[in-house]
């Protein structure tokens, strides 16, 4: 126990501890003191409207990637795609984000069937790989769009709500795919490139020669 005449204790009794603090959602700081001489009338009693921290976090969150057009640069030429973000926002966001991040770069058209479609988007190149930007499968997005004309761009899947990264471009009308595959775009230029890929020699639906996506530009 310290002696009663300890000068350190005597000095501490004379001190007024002061605490400075901030508040969540506040734009000011606060001072707390035991000094009884401070007049209450002089204290700041004004309150600002708290900042909406949830709104701030949402504002700071990165906006979803989207776009209305894309150019797929392949070893056979360029394919221009019109995208439908209103009809399939998740599918377009997935495609656009993957494209911007180079996910599809140097992947091949791994499945080609004449009078039907050309398929790509699998980094493994055998139809078993690929994932969405969320790291899991995402839900189908069916709209009024139909597979009623060739050059329709749709998500490949393994059943309902199993979309990942793979997609295909039809070369004919394919109405049996309606409400089974999410349509998120249509090819509008480079149709000759699509048919060139469609007519390449294949073995068990896989082109004998690797036909690659070099990269994809989002417009």
TrEMBL record:
One of its GO terms (cellular component) is nucleus. It is an enzyme of class 5 (isomerase). The keyword Isomerase applies. Residues 73-218 form the PPIase cyclophilin-type domain. InterPro entries: Cyclophilin-like_dom_sf, Cyclophilin-type_PPIase_dom, Cyclophilin_A-like. Transmembrane segments: none annotated. It catalyses: [protein]-peptidylproline (omega=180) = [protein]-peptidylproline (omega=0). It comes from the Eukaryota. GO terms for molecular function: peptidyl-prolyl cis-trans isomerase activity. Pfam families: Pro_isomerase. Keywords: Isomerase, Repeat, Rotamase, WD repeat. Its EC number is 5.2.1.8. The keyword Ribosomal protein does not apply. Belongs to the cyclophilin-type PPIase family. PPIases accelerate the folding of proteins. It catalyzes the cis-trans isomerization of proline imidic peptide bonds in oligopeptides. This is Peptidyl-prolyl cis-trans isomerase.
